[in-house]
Design a protein that fits this description.
Layout: H1 2-17, H2 19-25, H3 27-55, E1 61-65, H4 78-81, H5 88-97, E2 101-109, E3 118-120, E4 123-125, E5 129-133, E6 144-147, H6 152-156, E7 161-164, H7 166-173, E8 182-185, E9 188-196, E10 210-214, H8 215-221, E11 228-234, H9 239-253, E12 265-267, H10 269-312, H11 314-322, H12 327-363, H13 373-399, H14 403-407
Parallel strand pairs: 5-10, 7-9
Antiparallel strand pairs: 1-11, 1-12, 2-5, 2-11, 3-4, 3-8, 6-9, 7-10, 8-9
Helix pairs in contact: 1-12, 2-10, 3-10, 3-12, 3-13, 5-9, 10-12, 10-13, 12-13
């Protein structure tokens, strides 16, 4: 322990004597460590934000789609794309034949091959998130900021009314009362029935640009729209039973043979969280591996500078060996210097990574960035490991020097 402490002091003295060279040597370590910390904090924040959003979906709610996974990272298979869409009649059948279901709301998607835009008094809005549903959608957790949701009568009569998302309402109406105002969406004029509150947990940086229409009004707007999603609200404490009942009804409705798999998927909040975390863990692994390239470059720089240091201190090494220093003492000295160098670089990288995390939090206030413990431990651990790994060769070279030759070195 005493030798290691002596080695640390000697390493710090060497660093103080060559500050610029030491900084340039560990620059790669600083970049690599800061990237690991920054990426880790962003991933942790993204995980927290999306997990909270999915949890806010509710413990009694189910989402039924024709896709195997609601979170479609990696694209859809050909078999999924060829499946027939869910229908409004499927929603009616579930409501009538599933005793564990409180309510079912169909969600009709607008055509995906067009950009949906709106206008109010010359103020344009693009990339609107539009959909058609029925009044039962309120049961899934919708809260109103102004006005009301549309009614069954407005839905059945296909009236031109719309309910807007919070950010879309603020952009168009500022502090004015939006209820009863007329807006233009995709070339049609609608009366605003109300404005919804932003979901309790929104995606980081995402604006609430929803524009929801009565289901049959939406069918009138887009007669060719076919893709549906069904939002099912189970009775309290009966989610599992509701899921089984919905699956049985849909298999009958879609005429799926008993020996064939489902051509649809029923997702809960917990399942969606698991799916998302499976994807984000792979993304995190890839990003950390890529950021480790900086640590590799930094390690090569440490090895090079340590080899230069061995050459510069050849006489010192010869003197120490002539006075009785063993090979292990020389190896310990140079390895300690390499580890101290990369450890300090790791500490500096942690500081830069923390600053990156704070900057991202300022740019995206809805993204709760936080530096996770695993990122700190990984950053420091890898930086120390880089020092040990890339310091072995220079340390071994120093330990193998012949003391007589070393003392004669000029």
């Amino acid at each position: 322990m005493r030798k290691i402490w002596f080695g640390i002091q000697l390493a710090l003295d060497t660093l103080r004597g060559h500050k610029l060279r030491a900084f340039l040597t560990v620059l790669g370590v600083i970049i690599g460590t800061s990237t690991v910390i920054g990426v880790g904090s962003i991933i942790a924040g993204l995980d927290g934000a999306i997990t909270n959003q999915l949890k806010s979906f509710g413990t009694n709610n189910l989402v039924v789609t024709k896709w195997d996974s609601l979170i479609g990272f990696g694209g859809r298979s050909l078999e999924e794309r060829l499946r027939k869409p869910l229908t409004y009649e499927n929603a009616v059948a579930i409501q009538e034949r599933c005793p564990s279901v409180e309510s079912v709301s169909p969600w009709l998607f607008a055509p995906w091959n067009m950009i949906h835009k709106g206008k109010y008094k010359g103020v344009d809005a693009f990339n609107l998130n539009i959909g058609g549903t029925d009044p039962g959608y309120v049961e899934s957790g919708v809260e109103m900021l102004h006005g009301r949701f549309f009614t069954d009568s407005e839905n059945l009569r296909r009236l031109p009314v719309v309910v807007l998302g919070e950010d879309l309402g603020k952009n168009w109406f500022q502090n004015a009362d939006p209820v009863g105002k007329s807006v233009e969406i995709d070339g049609h004029i609608f009366e605003v029935a109300g404005v919804m509150k932003r979901p309790t947990a929104s995606m980081p940086g995402q604006e609430d640009r929803r524009a929801l229409f009565p289901y049959f009004t939406m069918r009138k707007m887009f007669p060719n729209a076919r893709e549906h999603m069904l939002i099912v609200v189970a009775r309290e404490g009966r989610q599992a039973a509701a899921m089984d009942e919905v699956r049985a009804v849909l298999r009958i409705e879609r005429r799926i043979p008993y020996d064939k798999p489902d051509s649809f998927a029923i997702s809960t909040a917990e399942q969606m969280i698991d799916q998302f975390r499976g994807v984000i863990s792979m993304v995190a692994l890839v990003m950390v591996v890529m950021s480790s390239i900086g640590l590799l470059v930094g390690g090569i720089g440490v090895m090079n500078i340590m080899l230069v240091s061995v050459t510069e201190r050849t006489r010192e090494i010869g003197t120490r060996k002539a006075l009785g220093a063993r090979r292990i003492d020389i190896v310990t000295q140079f390895l300690t210097e390499a580890v101290v160098l990369t450890f300090l670089g790791g500490l500096m990288g942690m500081g830069v990574g923390w600053l990156i995390s704070q900057a991202v939090g300022l740019v995206f206030p809805t993204l709760p960035t936080a530096v996770p413990v695993w990122a700190v431990m990984a950053g420091l651990g890898v930086s120390v490991g880089v020092g040990l790994f890339f310091g072995i060769w220079p340390a071994s070279k120093a330990a193998r020097l012949d003391p007589v030759v070393a003392l004669r070195y000029e």
